[in-house]
Amino acid sequence: MNRFDDLLAHAATVKDRHILDLFAADPDRAAHFSAEFGSWFFDFSKTNIDATGLKLLVDLAKKTGVAARRDAMFAGEKINETEGRAVLHMAWRNLGDTVTVDGHDVMPALRETLGRMQAFAEDVRTGRFTGQGGRITDVVNIGIGGSDLGPVMAAIACSSFADGPRLHFISNVDGAHAHDVLAGLNPETTLVIVASKTFTTIETMTNAETARAWMAAKVADPAAQFAAISTATDKTAAFGIPAERVFGFEDWVGGRYSVWSPIGLSLMIGIGPGYFAEFHAGAAAMDRHFRQAPLAENLPVLLALVGIWHNQVLGHATRAVLPYEQRLARLPAYLQQLEMESNGKRVSMDGADLPYHSGPVVWGEPGTNGQHAFYQLIHQGTRVVPCEFILAARGREPDLEHQHLLLVANCLAQSEALLRGRSLAEATDIMAKKGLSGAERDRQARHRVFPGNRPSTTLLIEVLTPFSLGGIVALYEHRVFVEGVILGINSFDQWGVELGKELALALAPVLDGSSEGAGKDGSTLGLAARIRAARA
């Protein structure tokens, strides 16, 4: 029996219903299909979920053991079963509770590391730690995946709070990335942070060597202006980085969940330990809500259930994340990794093939830019794309509040347009008022029809701050967890990234001509030959 059978049966009875009919039947629908915690308000009334559907979804969360699995995660049980690890990134933003792993409270060690981070960040910010040419003016974070996307996203989101050195990020092994970032910086006043837990990530270490060579051309001791986020202290020492500038974290913090840990050091330097603590506090507040709120009133659970309804029940394969907040420009990319690396799996926890689809394709861009790029497909395309709008009621620029109101109006208008659409009769009337008639009027009218009945949700905050951002990120982390539990998969491994890395190492000698590439397919060998010829 498919765990979604009851929901599939219900969906079949309402598939032709218009969402507007739900509002007509229940004048208070917006209140009945929304939830609020603190400064985070989630409206899912513009979906085709009715009271019966919501009950079935909540029942599904209960039947699949979401609450028990949540409690096991917070208790430090090794719910990442394929790697035999606990999942406790939440411990880094914990405000005081004991957190136990293998019978030991991990919080004293975490607090000690956070204290070292805070001291180092303040030393850099105040000029007590200097470069060989004076006060540090720029910080370059070198990492990839979770060691890059989290800090980049948060640094941009919190840019209006930044009063420290300028932050820069290098991730791609493409030499152009390192070249372009370093080109505008002074090696004598730049701090480089190398973020790699194992200190072996090939992209990161290649870029670290490039940065060291760049710095060596101008300073006597390049390693004196390096710090590391790593647990491989032997390798960091060999690189020349002293132990006092090495900050580690445990294997129960996955890369895509690591922005709360020392991976966030660059952010802490940029905005200061105080605002970094607020970032933690917002996430900790969402953690408490997730642990304590009933499932039917629980924001992460509700986000997950709406996602399950759209993907597994209705078969919508993608979801657009649309922040109407320019400083959240990198949030869609961050969530893309968080969700697709976590829930893009093909087998269940016991290794059996999934009898249903796993997580959706997640993508998006900030509004209003996206309106002039891909909203055409969202409004009039043949595929339904559920949309998640993220919106702040207030901006942070009082003198530009009129622009923020225009931004807000556009966000609400887009969700309304997706809901209502425009009928053929309405489009025909518009064309008639433009002076068209007959066949030409009818032809033009058809191009202006919007089907409507396209689902969207809105996550509303009062204003973007480190605190509200922390809550948003934690909200989505827990949403991913809940979806993973319901799907019966492990959201905390990522074996899908390994094969390509292994093959890349084997292809390097083929590209430089030192290997013939025995066993490689004809396409790969043919491309390699053309590349060798072009580089000769």
From TrEMBL:
One of its GO terms (cellular component) is cytosol. The active site is at E341 (proton donor), H372, K501. InterPro entries: G6P_Isomerase (IPR001672), G6P_Isomerase_C (IPR023096), Phosphoglucose_isomerase_CS (IPR018189), SIS_dom_sf (IPR046348), SIS_PGI_1 (IPR035476), SIS_PGI_2 (IPR035482). It comes from the Bacteria. Pathway: Carbohydrate biosynthesis; gluconeogenesis; Carbohydrate degradation; glycolysis; D-glyceraldehyde 3-phosphate and glycerone phosphate from D-glucose: step 2/4. GO terms for molecular function: carbohydrate derivative binding; glucose-6-phosphate isomerase activity; monosaccharide binding. Its EC number is 5.3.1.9. It is found in: Cytoplasm. Catalyzes the reversible isomerization of glucose-6-phosphate to fructose-6-phosphate. Belongs to the GPI family. This is Glucose-6-phosphate isomerase. It comes from Rhodobacter capsulatus (Rhodopseudomonas capsulata).
